[in-house]
Amino acid sequence: MGLTAKISIDFSVNGSKEFYVELLDIPEEVSAGELQELVDKRVEKVRSMKCAEILNAFIKINKADQFSR
What we know:
This protein is an alpha+beta fold and about 70 residues long. Helix content is about 30%, strand content about 50%. It has a 3-stranded antiparallel sheet with strand order 2-1-3, covered by helices on one side. Strand 1 and strand 2 form a beta hairpin.
């Protein structure tokens, strides 16, 4: 059974709080370092696209069938 990663980023643009969420199917053998790279890349994507101040970013891993899509 595969895993699903839920990346969540809370950010602020001109004082307005917003969020970004992405669900990714990932292999079970993915390392913590690889997961951190995914989060870092998404943080940079949000920061550059929205000219945003990042407030919080995290990743949650579950079995693929535990997140409702």
